Amino acid sequence: MRRRFSPQRLIKYAVYYLVASRMPRKRSPLGFIGRSMRTWACASLFDHLGVDTNVDKGVYFGSGAGVSLGDRSGIGVESMVLGTVRIGDDVMIGPRCVIVSHEHIYDDDSRPMNSQGMAPDLPVLIGNDVWLGVGVTLLPGVRIGDGAVVAAGGVVTHDVEAGDIVGGVPAKPIGRRSGATRLPPGL
User: Which domains, ranges and CATH numbers included, belong to the chain?
Assistant: First the structure.
């Protein structure tokens, strides 16, 4: 859902990017103020912001259009979330993660890549109770099933099944959470 420009949104962008995104983390003495300001701004800029969420210091999300953050979920310090990204409930996204739903077109060798435009948006869907470790990258169109874990530094290029533990570049299954059940297609 693309939102129309308004003076109120401009104010919230300015508050977020010029002040709130630079405020201390929640664990510091003034962290409550920073977290409250980030939540206040993101509630209007995101398509959806659940209850008891945390958008940590330095998170970049562009305009916020297309971003949905579920209840009790958090986005770690200096992470980047761009495009259509749906994040479920109880999700932990570690510091410096990159989640994008679009990429550049680069197929025509006769033209510079920067003049070929962007590929169509492919939404990224993250289920409930997911943990993305430090520095994880999720590429366009990826679906992460409920209860999955992506190890630090993993680059996810394909869907991850519910309950799987994946890691590496590109990310591959390295384990399974005990008691996890697989979800039916459609997340």
Answer: 48-176 (2.160.10.10)
- The token pair at 173 is 């299954």
Helices (H), the chain: 7-14, 31-45
DSSP state of 148: -
Contact 174, 153 (CB under 8 A): no
β-partners of residue 47 are none
Asked if the model's pLDDT at residue 111 lies above 80, the reply is yes
Residue located via tokens 């008691």: 179
Q: Look at the alpha carbons of 18, 20, 24, 29 in this order and tell me if their dihedral is positive or negative.
A: positive
- Tell me whether strands 85-87 and 143-144 are parallel, antiparallel or unpaired: unpaired
Higher pLDDT, 30 or 170: 170
Q: Count H helices, E strands: the chain?
A: 2, 16
What CA–CA distance (Å, rounded) separates 33 from 140? Answer: 34
Q: Which residues are catalytic?
A: 104
Tell me: pLDDT of 148 over 80. Answer: yes
